[in-house]
């Protein structure tokens, strides 16, 4: 089963946008900070992919854009919140491939800061040459994007709408390839992870990791827990559990694996969302500062910082044994921090 999945990834259409593998490092100082009962801690730096300001969407886009280009796309359309990480990585990929990109960005209500429209990710989108349609809070961004796609078609263009978070069947292959890359890096350090800690947004990343973990469980009886922290809460029309499982089962089927994917490896928590998507809280701010001070890298306030708050809670409540190995996936997002400076200052 594992070899079959590896072959499927190896033969899937893919446009190179990254340099792989992304770095994999021990977090020994964080471990010392937590104390003697702390398991061995590692971080996979998926934030260090080379387009835009990096992040986990680059690997998904390698597969998603292969399909877009095969379908003749000559302009990419994407939507997100004003500080979306996904759209920067799309803008960067479009620039890299030499095709135009239009972004439909929604302002926040209340705004994240007085300069949420000028700094952080949106600034990068502008510099990367994307055309930005900035919409007031509450406006239907997806509808505006579809209307624009129709207009472009009438002009004889081939617009391609990148689905939310690039979480499609193709995108899952990207996340699955990240999972296997992480396993290889762990094995180079003489361990198989007991747990991998990830952030749940549109959920394609978690779904890809779950498919990998379930395949390892079925074929090698290796139990790798996927500890997943949701950051959307009730603001997403589909619950985190349901969107993870529908993506995971779809990916399982499209890989033609026997039976169902199932969820025995999944540990999902919605307890670290805080007041809402892109809304900060003290535990997140403390977690970002603690890890920055201990390890010298900075998590973002909207995704990986909330996941870190969840990870620290697990470590402090003694869920893991000191001889276990826990890997934290840093999936990117740093630029959004600059639009939220007032919370850190
Ligand atoms: C998009 C994103 C995630 C979540 O990934 P999904 O595949 O959408 O669930 C996590 N962290 C960061 C920084 C992101 O930008």
From TrEMBL:
<dbReference type="InterPro" id="IPR001926">
    <property type="entry name" value="TrpB-like_PALP"/>
</dbReference>
<protein>
    <recommendedName>
        <fullName>Tryptophan synthase beta chain-like PALP domain-containing protein</fullName>
    </recommendedName>
</protein>
<feature type="modified residue" description="N6-(pyridoxal phosphate)lysine">
    <location>
        <position position="57"/>
    </location>
</feature>
<dbReference type="GO" id="GO:0019148">
    <property type="term" value="F:D-cysteine desulfhydrase activity"/>
</dbReference>
<comment type="similarity">
    <text>Belongs to the ACC deaminase/D-cysteine desulfhydrase family.</text>
</comment>
<dbReference type="InterPro" id="IPR036052">
    <property type="entry name" value="TrpB-like_PALP_sf"/>
</dbReference>
<dbReference type="Pfam" id="PF00291">
    <property type="entry name" value="PALP"/>
</dbReference>
<feature type="active site" description="Nucleophile">
    <location>
        <position position="84"/>
    </location>
</feature>
<keyword id="KW-0663">Pyridoxal phosphate</keyword>
<feature type="domain" description="Tryptophan synthase beta chain-like PALP">
    <location>
        <begin position="17"/>
        <end position="332"/>
    </location>
</feature>
<dbReference type="InterPro" id="IPR027278">
    <property type="entry name" value="ACCD_DCysDesulf"/>
</dbReference>
């Amino acid at each position: 089963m594992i070899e079959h999945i590896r072959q499927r990834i190896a033969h899937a259409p893919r446009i190179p946008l990254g340099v792989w593998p992304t770095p994999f490092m021990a977090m020994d100082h964080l471990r010392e900070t937590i104390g003697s009962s702390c398991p061995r801690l590692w971080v996979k730096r998926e934030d260090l992919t080379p387009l835009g300001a990096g992040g986990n969407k680059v690997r998904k886009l390698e597969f998603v854009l292969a399909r877009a280009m095969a379908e003749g796309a000559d302009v990419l359309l994407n939507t997100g919140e004003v500080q979306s990480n996904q759209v920067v990585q799309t803008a960067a990929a479009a620039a890299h491939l030499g095709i135009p990109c239009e972004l439909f960005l929604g302002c926040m209500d209340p705004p994240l800061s007085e300069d949420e429209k000028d700094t952080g990710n949106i600034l990068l989108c502008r510099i990367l040459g994307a055309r930005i349609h900035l919409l007031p809070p509450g406006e239907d961004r997806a509808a505006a994007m579809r209307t624009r796609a129709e207009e472009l078609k009438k002009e004889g263009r081939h617009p391609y709408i990148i689905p939310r978070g690039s979480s499609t069947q193709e995108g899952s292959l990207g996340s699955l390839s990240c999972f296997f890359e992480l396993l290889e890096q762990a094995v180079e350090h003489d361990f198989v992870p007991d747990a991998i800690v990830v952030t749940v947004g549109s959920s394609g990343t978690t779904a890809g990791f779950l498919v990998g973990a379930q395949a390892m469980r079925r074929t090698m009886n290796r139990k790798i827990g996927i500890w997943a922290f949701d950051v959307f809460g009730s603001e997403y029309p589909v619950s985190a559990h349901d969107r993870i499982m529908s993506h995971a089962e779809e990916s399982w089927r499209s890989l033609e694996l026997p039976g169902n994917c199932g969820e025995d490896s999944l540990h999902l928590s919605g307890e670290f969302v805080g007041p809402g998507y892109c809304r900060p809280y003290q535990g997140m701010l403390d977690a970002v500062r603690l890890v920055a001070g201990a390890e010298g890298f900075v998590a973002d306030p909207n995704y990986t910082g909330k996941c870190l708050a969840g990870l620290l809670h697990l470590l402090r409540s003694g869920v893991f044994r000191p001889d276990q190995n826990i890997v934290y996936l840093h999936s990117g997002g740093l630029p959004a921090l600059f639009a939220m400076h007032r919370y850190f200052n």
